[in-house]
Amino acid sequence: MKKKLLVILIAILSTHCYSQISFEKGYYIDNSNQKIDCLIKNLDWGSNPTKFEFKLTDKGQSKIETIESIKEFGIYNISKYIKKQVSIDRSSENINKLSENKDPYLKKEQLFLKVLIEGKANLYEYKDKNLRRYFYNKESSNIEQLIFKSYKTFENEIRENNKFRQQLWNNLRCSNHNMTRVISLNYNKNDLANFFIEYNQCNNQEVINYTKKQKRDLFNLNLRPRFNNSTLAVKSPSSILSSIESEVKLGFGFGLEAEFILPFNKNKWAIVVEPTYQSYRYKKITNSINFEGGVLITDVNYNSIEIPFGLRHYFFLNEKSKIFINASYVIDLPSKSSIDYKRSDNVTVNSLKITSNSNLAFGIGYKIYDKYSLEMRYQNTRNILTREPAWYSEYNTLSLIIGYSFY
User: Fold this and answer.
1) Is 3 inside any structural domain?
2) Among residues 1, 304, 349, 366, which is most buried (max CB within 10 A)?
3) What's the domain range around 314?
């Protein structure tokens, strides 16, 4: 029941918070060359967009414009896209789908190209999922693709067509560039952007660099104490020893979480690793005629380090607060843990060593000022007696986690 409620709550929050990304000051130019200042919804696009959402005023109604009616749009000091009809090669770089043809297959398409460097020579980028293509032009010349293509020979060897280096040597040669400098270039944004900056500076041209990233907090260390509501059930159909019938215990745990913010989609995704100490104690005395003194003592001592590896998604409510959900795969490492059955004279009748398997965890929480957080997390059933085939166990936990980010 707890798990169902958590899943329903996550679904509701996901629906209502999806649109919580801020609108930022920008502009667009329509096909009639009219420039409109507006507020553009910054999605930090992973792939080049074909449309964008905007407002004319902060309290205005949001609208959509598409590539058909817009020739340029941008967010001031962050990004700029221009519409151009260009010839693009979409050959796959997947090793299992490589072409046997060295030459690119160029096809004309109308695209929004992302401006990376502006000056006497301009550099542009086009991304579509795993596809990366770079384009350039010099002054008012036509925009062309910088050619790079991996291909497979008849001998099944993988080769590269690095024509982009020849293009740059022929068209953007500078007095401080030599062939070694060009040959050392890789087909990626950083190498190409640095080369275009050098070329423009060499020609005493002003450079606008859109590749400069806004300062982002991409790594956090969080202290994570928690209150655990844990349930344990232990049974053995073939044993006269006492079963443990879904005993609920309140406990305390402590974790240290490393959070790695992924640098796209406005910092909404993160990978988290959270080593956590947790413990569960249970002791019960039952009357039993099968043991000396007529008493059986059941003593559970379960201590472990849990290591959840998870994926987190944030929903921004405003500049100060956000809601998050996460799903984790939890590895459990018990230490000095066992379930002991003893007689009244404290002699051990049987001792079951606790060794557990992995399980899944799902959480939902709230964070404010990027500093303080509160999370509710549910862990599904875990077997803690994996090396005791004659025994059956179920252990699960519902936690209330308090977080403090100190780095």
Assistant:
1) no
2) 304
3) 219-405
